[in-house]
Amino acid sequence: MHLVMFDIDGTLVDSAGFDAELYVEAVRSVLDVEIGRDWNAYEHVSDSGILEQVLRDARLDDQAQELAARVQERFVSLVRDYLGRTPGAVREIAGAKSLIDRLLELPNVRVAIATGGWEPTAKLKLAHVGIGTERLGFASSSDARARTDIMRLAAQRALRGASYARATYFGDGAWDRRASEELGWDFVAVGDGVAHAIAYADLRATDAILSRIGCA
Length: 216
Description:
By secondary structure, this protein is α/β, with parallel strands linked by helices. Helices cover 45% and strands 14% of the residues.
């Protein structure tokens, strides 16, 4: 069995940079804390992991659970409102849906999505471009803060008790590549955010991509 997994932002969905801005705004409005936008500076590059570190650095640990819930609620509200006002802000990475549909047709492949975003906003963006999660294993930062833990959980949900001989993860960030290396999985870079031997500007070259990852 070949497990094929995708990140969302920058991999399946182009959110035009608004996602990071709204996350920063949610943290600022709830915590009155200004955070940097260099996600590589954080130990766990996920919505919950970044927020946990922000709360710790701001010495707000004693209120962490309540404040984290408020930040997430604010962020989800901001994203929903933004998409309502600016429907063109979220676009499918070219070829993403077609590639997933082809993979789902293959008998010895299981498909999953593992994202560092929280589940409500992640599914809002996927729905916006017509990608459903009903037939996929799905895990997010709502499940765990470490990307490797999110990926493992998505794998379990996709495999449903089956085992896999090979795993490939599609992502757009250095943290995606590091997590793949830690798990011993193959990595495919999407876009120009991270240098890697196997990289595609988008996902339109379906046949070439399937051949390259051994799913043709």
